[in-house]
Amino acid sequence: MFDFLVSALTFASLYGLMALGLNLQAGYGGLLNFGHIAFAGLGAYGTGIAVQAGYSPWLGMAFGVLLAMGLGGCVARLGRKLASDYWGIATLAIAEILRVVATNEGWLTGGAQGIGAIPTLFDGVAFLLMMLALLGIATLLCQRLADGRFGRALRLMREEPQLAACMGYDLTSLKSRAIMASAALTAIAGSLYAHFMSYVGPDYLLASETFLLWTMLMIGGLGNLRGVLLGVFLVQAAYSLVPFAKDYLGFDSDLAGALRLGLIGAILLACLMWRSEGLIPEKVRKIA
After folding, report:
1. Which of 60, 122, 136, 242 could cross-link to 47 by cystine, CB 3.0-4.6 Å?
2. pTM value?
3. Integer-rounded Cα radius of gyration of the chain
4. Is the separation of the CB atoms in 223 and 28 below 8 Å?
């Protein structure tokens, strides 16, 4: 039971870092990135490839972060010529392209089998404590960013892009910096995920992972850090409770997977119907 709780909290902390990264784009900047999981995948594969080649896993993490930031810059530039909804579809396509490449380029990524034998940085409780510390630091940094000039500029771009442009803000630069900062944080989470699982594979790049992060944000509250973390831990708690129900009620694993999706869907639907802005909505100043 203790090991199960440690594992569940570690997963929640990892997803918390990824969700904080997505919140930088979607919550503050209003950017519809449906391929966000690609940044985590690059961080994980950077670590896996470096370890496979005999290099330090820390070098692999740095390599993955640089790759993710480079992809973020390219994705932001792509958004100059596309409307927000088309840009969101384009990001989904980019993540899917990366997944297909990871599946087929076995010489580099291990193909469908992925890369295993990635060393764990710490064991059990030590890894959890490290993740909770990183999550706390990331939350404080994101809060400081949100309260600063850059965060206010992102919110202005989200609410009134034309006004932001008239005030002299370079919208492309704002989007690029938000996406690249988000990519760096998410890539670190992806690298640590690979260490925790001792494995990285194409399944890390599934679109369902991005939509799971979006679900966490929508349940908790876009643009509110406390809401984001609440959504992450609430969804993770729902995922963790299903195995207990499975053993107690005696149904099979396939039904357990369907129950997980149904439970998360029910929570999301309830929030959309009665708390459309999330459980802890963002407080936005209104111009009188």
Report:
1. 60
2. 0.93
3. 19
4. yes
